[in-house]
């Protein structure tokens, strides 16, 4: 008889205030594949990908669909070809969008996209970090091609749109560490203060044109733009503010066609970042996510980067998950919310 475990999932795609938007379920405990870690989940964080996947749409699932792509926990079992981890290791990771998520007692993850949990962070603090850390790192250094050598970035600037959110909070810190002049967009006193505490030299409003505001803080343009909020809404403002031969990266899909001709005159590079690409397509460099999280783990332990956890919810059940989804969907979330399974 298969061993069972508790989880939080969905069968139908509903608004979060519907009683059955997320439900408590019982499932078979998963069995690790060759390169898998079976992780005893201690905490998960909620991200926009959770609310997008859960949001209202057609279709009914025969088996419960499990969300949750930010996990920290303890390795309970390893697959036959696992080489980097052993039972009892504390890990953190974002997982793969093509596999069941981590909102469950036990969860499977490929070892190539997991890393040892930072020693100085609690399970809750660690769970807040993988997805946003990977997205920020890949966006800045893999997609925009920003140098990891601060001296090479002297005199260069970056505009981060949506600076107080989960990804923005890490991108600010990494951009500052990389030696850039950092400008973040924020719309309220609380988000302006948060952005400045996490690395922004200046904040500007995302409701107004960017270029005049940049000029007010002494910048004629931005060498890089990292768009973490509404690509469509900010497109023309970004094209006006980006430097000739500058680079723009967005993590937000568009709902309307973009006028890409605006890229031409300045020879601007535009690129998208999707944190799940490496695991979804099992790219040859999939292990890069293990490497990034390992480097970030050392940065957390050395105090160079701070966790962005702002709220922890308990117990680990559907009611807590619903509260977390509601907070995220309010649009006023600062930092990250985590649901804890730690005793």
TrEMBL record:
The protein, known as: Zinc-type alcohol dehydrogenase-like protein
PANTHER family: PROTEIN AST1-RELATED (PTHR43482)
Keyword entries, A-Z: Metal-binding, Oxidoreductase, Zinc
TM region positions: none
Family as reported in the entry's similarity comment: Belongs to the zinc-containing alcohol dehydrogenase family. Quinone oxidoreductase subfamily.
Domain Enoyl reductase (ER): 17-339
An MF annotation (GO) of this entry: zinc ion binding
The species this protein was found in: Fictibacillus solisalsi
């Amino acid at each position: 008889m298969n061993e069972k475990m508790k989880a939080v999932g969905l069968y139908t795609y509903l608004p979060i205030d519907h009683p059955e938007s997320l439900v408590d379920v019982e499932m078979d405990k998963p069995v690790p594949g060759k390169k898998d870690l079976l992780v005893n989940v201690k905490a998960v964080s909620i991200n926009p990908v959770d609310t997008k996947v859960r949001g209202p749409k057609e279709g009914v699932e025969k088996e419960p669909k499990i969300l949750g792509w930010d996990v920290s926990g303890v390795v309970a079992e390893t697959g036959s070809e696992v080489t980097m981890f052993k039972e009892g290791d504390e890990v953190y990771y974002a997982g793969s969008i093509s596999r069941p998520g981590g909102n469950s007692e036990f969860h499977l993850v490929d070892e190539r996209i997991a890393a040892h949990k930072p020693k100085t962070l609690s399970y809750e603090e660690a769970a807040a970090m993988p997805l946003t850390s990977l997205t920020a790192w890949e966006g800045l250094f893999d997609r925009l091609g920003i140098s990891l050598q601060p001296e090479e970035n002297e005199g260069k600037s970056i505009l981060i749109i949506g600076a107080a959110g989960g990804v923005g909070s890490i991108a600010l810190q990494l951009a500052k560490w990389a030696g850039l002049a950092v400008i973040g967009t924020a719309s309220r006193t609380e988000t302006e203060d948060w952005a400045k505490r996490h690395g922004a030299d200046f904040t500007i409003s995302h409701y107004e044109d960017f270029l005049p505001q940049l000029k007010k803080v002494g910048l004629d343009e931005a060498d890089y733009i990292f768009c973490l909020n509404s690509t469509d809404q900010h497109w023309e403002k970004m094209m006006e503010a980006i430097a000739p031969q500058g680079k723009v990266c967005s993590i937000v899909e568009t709902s309307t066609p973009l006028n890409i001709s605006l890229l031409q005159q300045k020879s601007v590079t535009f690129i998208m970042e999707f944190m799940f690409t490496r695991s979804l397509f099992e790219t040859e460099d999939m292990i890069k996510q293990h490497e990034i999280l390992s480097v970030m783990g050392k940065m957390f332990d050395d105090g160079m980067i701070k966790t962005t956890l702002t709220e922890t919810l308990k117990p680990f059940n559907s009611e807590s998950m619903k509260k977390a989804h509601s907070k995220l969907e309010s649009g006023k979330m600062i930092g990250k919310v985590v649901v804890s399974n730690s005793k």
